[in-house]
């Protein structure tokens, strides 16, 4: 492989071809620190042309490559396996914002741009890029698009797919497709852009994207409401949509146990409502008219919900600091779980109307098989996306409980399938869930996916072992 490595060094500079094991380690270990792969090298190109040169070398020498952005994924999608045959193609040096067209409400960013940097550039132009994720300080837009990230604002603005108008991609054989068109209508053939979004780097390497921007809202208001059960949260969502329309930006469901975990591990935060209710909804309105207009809408629908016995209590943020504190209760759930200990995670989506019934049925099934197991349930109720995580019962050793992961996954995923849901809402499949795909996708769908993969990546060098077996 020395000829291959020499070729990489000639293409992008020897300083950007890393083979030292200690220096490679951060690129080989997944975000949750549960798996470390091996690699031939970590390669760090800085331009689209350099990416193309590396991909051509990989095809020539039959070296697999694993594209990687911020390495914040949760399904081993950007980590190589243990064979040591692949390279990690780090896109962190492709981090420039190429253009911001305020009149067209678009921003063109390279794949390695940190999400927060895109937010800042949009804000400087009095615009909003609405993709909102807890990892926004480290995740990259290439990774967001690769997994079709959702986040907290999907209810109003859609997933990463809906926020992207065009792509620049290095194909599986090293060609460069420039599809950076900031068009909202283009009916000239197959929508190639949508094939690459959500493909987790298995079809090509996204190097830049044209992103949708929106006018900055005149006001943002945040509230937390308490209710007894998830079906009450669905009732509240319907009321909020009826009273607030498109001003309803986020509607997050958080179980009491999830809230208790955050307060336990982040004692500087405080609960805006007593933790005596089963479920909590975090609600955000973004209004283009005025703060008074938004406040009237928020207060009106919350008062109605209380009168109808849908919610038991509510608190409205009175300052930016209070709003940020409320959001920290939601955004620190994953960190609090990690501090508490290992748990079995599920990133699922269901028809919104089925969320309550799914939780009731699946909670009951899990308790029957694993009495006392603790459910950390939270997610984007407005779009049916749910993080349904299972922790060990009190007194049960965590490692012994983690050995039950296959059985717990089967209960959860079979229940998801019975409600016509999906086993991956926004994290992707990666290497972690690829075998589950065969169980829950029809054979004809798997066959079509394999044909697309073969057409785009005939030499099988693009992120092998991810999504498809």
UniProtKB/TrEMBL annotation:
Domain of life, source organism: Bacteria
Keyword Flavoprotein: yes
Cofactor section: FAD
Transmembrane domains' residue ranges: none
One MF annotation (Gene Ontology) recorded for this entry: FAD binding
GO BP terms in the entry: respiratory electron transport chain
Residue stretches making up the FAD-binding PCMH-type domain: 35-216
PANTHER family attached to this UniProt entry: BLL6224 PROTEIN, D-2-HYDROXYGLUTARATE DEHYDROGENASE, MITOCHONDRIAL
Record family assignment: Belongs to the FAD-binding oxidoreductase/transferase type 4 family.
Protein known as: FAD-binding oxidoreductase
Species of the source: Oxalobacter vibrioformis
Lineage per the UniProt record: Bacteria, Pseudomonadati, Pseudomonadota, Betaproteobacteria, Burkholderiales
């Amino acid at each position: 492989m020395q000829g291959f490595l020499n070729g990489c060094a000639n293409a992008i500079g020897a300083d950007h071809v890393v083979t030292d094991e200690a220096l490679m380690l951060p690129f080989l270990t997944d975000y949750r620190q549960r798996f470390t792969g091996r690699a031939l090298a970590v390669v760090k190109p800085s331009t689209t042309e350099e990416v193309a040169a590396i991909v051509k070398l990989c095809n020539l020498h039959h070296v697999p490559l694993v594209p990687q952005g911020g390495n914040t994924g949760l399904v081993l999608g950007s980590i190589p396996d243990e064979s040591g045959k692949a390279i990690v193609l780090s896109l962190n040096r492709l981090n420039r914002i190429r253009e911001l067209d305020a009149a067209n409400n678009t921003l063109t960013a390279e794949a390695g741009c940190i999400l927060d940097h895109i937010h800042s550039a949009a804000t400087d132009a009095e615009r909003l890029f609405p993709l909102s994720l807890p990892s926004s300080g480290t995740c990259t837009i290439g990774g967001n698009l690769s997994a079709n990230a959702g986040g907290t604002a999907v209810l109003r603005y859609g997933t990463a797919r809906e926020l992207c108008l065009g792509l620049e991609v290095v194909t599986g054989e090293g060609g460069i497709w420039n599809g950076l068109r900031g068009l909202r209508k283009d009916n000239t053939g197959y929508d190639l852009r949508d094939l690459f979004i959500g493909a987790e780097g298995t079809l090509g390497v996204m190097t830049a994207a044209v992103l949708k921007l929106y006018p900055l809202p005149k006001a943002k208001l945040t509230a937390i409401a308490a209710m007894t059960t998830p079906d009450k949260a669905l009732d509240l969502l319907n009321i909020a949509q009826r009273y607030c329309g498109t001003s309803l930006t986020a509607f997050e469901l958080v179980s009491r146990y999830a809230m208790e975990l955050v307060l336990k591990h982040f004692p500087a935060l405080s609960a805006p409502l007593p933790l005596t209710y089963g479920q909590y909804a975090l609600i955000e309105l973004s209004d283009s008219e005025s703060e008074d207009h938004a406040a009237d809408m928020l207060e009106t629908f919350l008062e109605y919900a209380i009168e109808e016995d849908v919610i038991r209590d509510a608190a409205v943020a009175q300052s930016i600091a209070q709003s940020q504190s409320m959001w920290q209760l939601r955004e620190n759930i994953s960190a609090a779980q990690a501090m508490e200990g290992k748990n079995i995670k599920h990133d699922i989506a269901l028809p919104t109307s089925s969320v309550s019934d799914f939780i009731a049925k699946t909670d009951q099934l899990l308790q029957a098989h694993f009495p006392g197991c603790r459910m950390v349930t939270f997610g984007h109720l407005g779009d049916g996306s749910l993080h349904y995580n299972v922790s060990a019962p009190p007194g049960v050793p965590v490692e012994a409980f983690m050995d039950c992961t296959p059985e717990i996954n089967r209960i959860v995923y079979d229940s998801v399938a019975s409600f016509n849901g999906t086993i991956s809402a926004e994290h992707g499949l990666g290497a972690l869930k690829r075998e589950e795909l065969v169980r829950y996708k029809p054979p004809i769908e798997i066959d079509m996916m394999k044909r697309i993969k073969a057409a785009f990546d005939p030499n099988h060098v693009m992120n092998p072992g991810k999504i498809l077996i």
